[in-house]
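ok trying this again, last paste got cut off
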Amino acid sequence: MMDPIERKIAFKAQAARERKTVHAAAVEACGVTWFHLSEGVSGKRPISAKVRQRFAEYIGRPTEEVFGHFAA
């Protein structure tokens, strides 16, 4: 399982590769704002299974690898 900082770094790196802001990438890839996504991947607020799945797909990793037992 990735830790929260690794998740954010992976997302920011993918957004940079696509030449998008993290906010634009979050909205387009996950359907939520960067603030909501950032809080969720840090464990500060709940995020849906759908958002977790879309996040993992965006960074190119299996959901279970990114979120561990929270992936289900």
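PB: full thing came through this time. The chain has one domain: 4-67.
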